[in-house]
Amino acid sequence: MIRNTCNSLLAIVFAVAALIQNVSACASEPDVATPPEVDISGPPYEFAPALIAQAAALLDTARQQAAPYAIVQSLVTEVGPRLAGTEGDRAAVAWALATLQAMDFDAIRAEGVVVPHWERGAASAQIIAPYPQQLHVVSLGDSAGTADSGLEAPVLMVHDLAELEHLDGDRVAGHIVFFAQRLTRRQDGSHYDQVVKNRTEGASAAARRGAVAVVVRSVGTDNNRLGHTGSVNYAADALRIPALALSNPDADMLVTQLETGEPVFLRMRSTARQLAPQRSANVIAEITGTSAEGGIVILAAHLDSWDLGTGALDNGSGVAVVVEAARLISSLPQRPRRTIRVVLFANEEFGLSGARAYAERSAQNGERHFVGMEADSGDGRVWRLDATAPESAQSLVAGLGALLAPLEIPVGKLRQSGGADLKPLRQRGMPELSLRQDMSSYFDYHHTANDTLDKVDASSLTNLVAAYAAITWVVANTDQNFGRLPETPAAPASGSPGASP
Ligand SMILES: [Zn+2]
């Protein structure tokens, strides 16, 4: 689908930017050139007794008084879906500014970001042979639509992207490629990073081999008859063919019909389309540190959501956790040594527009980020503290873990990856702390119409706030240093695996 580039230079700039954007999905993906994953070992660093006492008090206060559920409830009730570029997106920015202004922050602002604007329209698909059946589908984000008359073609099933990439074009040409791989339920959600490539890269890989469309088994662990949306990453060297997600039960039925050995034909139609880019904003709130030297501690969450549900888990929960953790700190009688900055990022789901704009603006301003944390894993309980940091930081991370003993959160690993929105800052050397959440049920609801408030566990969110607040206070005040990650080049120009969930 060709974007509307007639009306402004901005649109042309955006179209170029879109070619180099990564696709995001609210999970994590390895960064290039970070050290291999290792267990954090050795004696924990012992923080100053006063700092330990303050962290313990903050942790207790948070467990008794934090109210993150009210924040996510307000967001999903008063705003609801907030897909980049839509009215909901603009309403979310206004909601965030009003919500933060009602708290005790020292500075609040919105920083403009240009975001893509894609319209879902209507999508339908049917098996027309050998056994006609209606299928439950959703268009994948950024998908091109079909012609008004729709399209019909035989189906070629592959397990995953790797299998497709071993097929010759003459096997694929003229077909609708069906990716059948199922996502496995895991506590750490790690299978997502593998399976999501079918969704993000599958359409272009199929188009290069002459396919006319793709249908992807939803990247979800549920058995509801609901499709999971999420972005397609169209490469610059391939045609933009339509891409739909099938619900898991419908994918099962398609597999069963294909296994009869008879040719299977699908009909599909989608009115999805790209519109002109829009203005959105990163919304920022700060607790000003007493020293300008120490760098910034950033707490990140993305404000945008997909359009099918109300974005209660992805990422209303993350927004509520970082805002409430910072609010508790802002109401303390003293200010931290380092500035604590909450950033609610624009458009994570459609290519990290807010994260990239923030990192560029920050670099131009000569800012230094001391360490970052990102909440974007729903409402699951924290089960481990990991870090993306140099090996020399192990003792310091272990010391932070010791502070979380009342929440029974052990320290785990120095990781290769981290939050999607913090990736541009990691590439500039910022270390990251990761409070790993239980993601066993997250992908039942992720990117579906079922991502609604009733799925959110209030007590789990409160525990998360306690962990975030205690860690944030200590890292904003310690005289120790996590060091820096090796700086890595920006993402390659096209067809890159992209950021993450
Ligand atoms: Zn997310």
Word description of this protein:
- The chain is of the alpha/beta class and 501 residues long.
- It is 32% helix and 21% strand.
- It is built from 14 helices and 17 strands.
- The protein has an eight-stranded mixed β-sheet with strand order 4-3-10-6-7-8-9-5. A five-stranded mixed β-sheet has the order 2-11-13-12-14, sandwiched between helices.
- Helix 11 (394-403) links the parallel strand 15 (382-388) and strand 16.
- Helix 9 packs across helix 14 (458-475).
- The longest helix has 19 residues, at 312-330.
- It is elongated.
- Mean pLDDT is 91; it is low at 1-29 and 492-501.
- Zinc ion is lined by residues 26, 302, 314-315, 348, 376.
Main sheet specs: 8 strands, mixed
**Helix/sheet category:** alpha/beta
Q: Helix coverage percent of residues? A: 25-40%
Strand order of the largest sheet: 4-3-10-6-7-8-9-5
Low-confidence runs of at least 5 consecutive residues: 1-29, 492-501
Global shape: elongated
Total helical segments: 14
> How many beta strands in the DSSP annotation?
17
Mean pLDDT: 91
Q: What is the CA-based Rg, rounded?
A: 23 Å
Distance between the termini: 24 Å
Q: Ligands in the structure?
A: zinc ion
Q: What fraction of residues sit in β-strands?
A: 15-25%
